[in-house]
Amino acid sequence: MIISQDKPFEEILELLQDHRTIFIIGCNTCASKLHVGGEEEILTMRSGLEDAGKDVIGWALPTAACSIRSWEHLAEKDRSIEKADAVLVMACGSGASVISRVTDIQVYTSNNTTSLGGIFKGEILPDQCKMCGNCTISYFGGICPTAQCPKNLLNGPCGGCADGKCETDPDKDCVWEMIYLKLKEMNRLDLVEKIYLPRENK
Amino acid sequence: MHSLFQDKIRSGSFVITAEITPPKGTDTTKAVENADMLRGCVDALNITDNNRAVMRMSPVALGKILKDRGHEVIVQMTCRDRNRLALQSELLGAYALGIENICVMTGDHVKSGDHQGAKAVYDLDSVQLLSMIRKMMNGSDLYGNPLDSAPEFMVGAVSNIDPGQAMQMLKFKKKILEGADFIQTQAIYDPDLFESFMEYAREFKVPVIAGIIPLKSAGMARFMNENVPGIHIGEDLIERMEQARDPVHEGFEISCEVISRIRPICQGIHLMPIGQHLNTQRLLEMAGFSK
What we know:
Chain A is an alpha/beta fold. Helix content of chain A is 28%, strand content 24%.
């Protein structure tokens, strides 16, 4: 799941300052689950924009903003999109990029995309993967140090770790502590003994 | 040039190093004065690299200036601000300027400094940086391309000293395996803990230089306990600082007691007073080191 958050409404208004006729596109996959691009958020955005004097001529909620079949497919449900002078995408950066490819109408996004994460038992889990292209998760008990250690370390914790907590946030468990406990439980501490080479940035 | 610091490290002699922080600006007068106060009483000056992620002058530049004034220098090199290209070119440049001692560390995260929105690089970690330096010293860059001339550094690294922290000890071990010539520690206030670390470290046969920060007040002790990772100042010491009529002197007394306990079991001390080195010479005299 791509984790995104909504931008401050003032920033969205600033983005749209040269436009009057707006069409909103949400995303019924990640952004909807995170409540930053589902139907309810689209309707709230619509009334906010209308209160600010914009003309919201329609909206759409594709299954996934990042997986659009064609402009035709997007437009066939609501032809008013063709009269819009701006499209506001309430989805991640990937969704906004894909929609930009299928239209000449200027595309804006209402969201800031922050990480590749997930949801487990209702709790949002950010930074589960950094998409580095060198997956090492199999060596670390399924916990990714590249994504979860703010210093992306591969050979153990930094000296900033105190009482099992991260240097950057005393409320965050040090990922190396988590990896250690998991591998210890699995009786696989040999995996952290290995010296890992620098990752090849892709 | 002949390096006395390197000779001492290699021969097992006790060394004294002191921390110097580069200026936040272009004027090196104060840093030079600070260094000059230590002339003759320490073996090397250890120059920080944007410590606490606060932007300051390059330690390589200050290192060159101090070296030209006859000081032996150790330049710290963190992984925070440079990718693998920049680290290597900085190291080659440092060596060409006469800097022969490097101390490698991960580096405090940018979130603790004065440029919180900076990109935290960490392209390599400290273990990988040590390994890369070893490669460069053997005549090639990280990717195996030959260097037309190779640097010959003495390379130190830093370590936590709590043997109860398995992952920290594992990291220590990896640093030794990747060729750290000496290990510098965070400030020591608990000689018993340091002793147990030395028992663990003994088999790796690496020179250990123990960090010393003289306490100035009980408040400073509490602040460090809360804010500086890897520092544990016992309540008994805080109590002593609280009761002391002259807390600065008491802080020196405590440092001297720690030094006398650890001196027989490690290979050096690294002095990191808060502020200038105005009293470092006095501390060394109190601790029984003659100039």
